[in-house]
Amino acid sequence: MNTEKKYSTLPALQKAGLMEHWLQEHKGRDLTSFRLPAENPLAEAVIIVTASSARHARSLADGLTEMCKQETFEILRTEGYQEGEWVLVDLNDIIVHIFQQPARERYHLEGLWRDAAPLPATAADGKEN
Description:
The chain has 129 residues and is of the alpha+beta class. The chain is 30% helix and 24% strand.
């Protein structure tokens, strides 16, 4: 079994493409993703998605975490899981925000990255088109 961490070799944009596809397949709505500027110390990319309920948000976080474990992507931590209003999944080079609609509207994270470039359209295999 290959235990090498793919985060060290698979580009963040390809990882983000895989995650976007997975989130869309599992009924994540209004998905938005950004490539952060190179000088940003937080991550290379941010994905924001809306869940229909706290249970759905937790399910998306669980499923995304499981997918990352299967792909051997690094997972640093998950925050906000119990409440399910805003679940943050920190994958080192990608940060995924899973919101319920009221919280997404309240915090409007898209405004923080309004000058960031959207991630390119991705295919199901996570490669750029």
